[in-house]
Amino acid sequence: MKLLNISSTRKALEELFTQVMCSSVLTPKERMQIQKILLEGYLNDDEYAIINRLFYNVRRGWIKLVD
Predict the structure, then answer these.
(1) How far is 12 from 5, CA to CA, in rounded Å?
(2) 41 pLDDT band (50/70/90 cuts)?
(3) Angle separating helix axes 2-23 and 45-60, nearest 10 degrees
(4) What backbone torsions phi and psi does residue 62 show, to the nearest 5 degrees?
(5) Residue 8 has what pLDDT?
(6) Residue 9: is its pLDDT beyond 50?
(7) Alpha-carbon dihedral sign for residues 34, 20, 65, 45
(8) What pLDDT, on the 0 to 100 scale, is given for residue 2?
(9) How confident is the model at residue 6 (pLDDT cuts 50, 70, 90)?
(10) CA distance 63 to 17
(11) Domain boundaries, the chain
(12) How is 15-38 classified by DSSP, letter by letter?
């Protein structure tokens, strides 16, 4: 059961990353998804890398935060 949750978390992160990178916008709903994923529990290195890449792109100005 835990393996299913881990794979669904990874899939959700990959879909979120793709959506944000294509639109160059991070919405409040997407930020809440990231927060929920971080608070759920264990993430592997690849999942942390996806989140770090999103944050890096926000810092560089390639992704804009909208309200």
Answers:
(1) 10
(2) confident
(3) 20
(4) -80, -20
(5) 81
(6) yes
(7) positive
(8) 44
(9) low
(10) 11
(11) 2-65
(12) HHHHHHHHHTEE-HHHHHHHHHHH
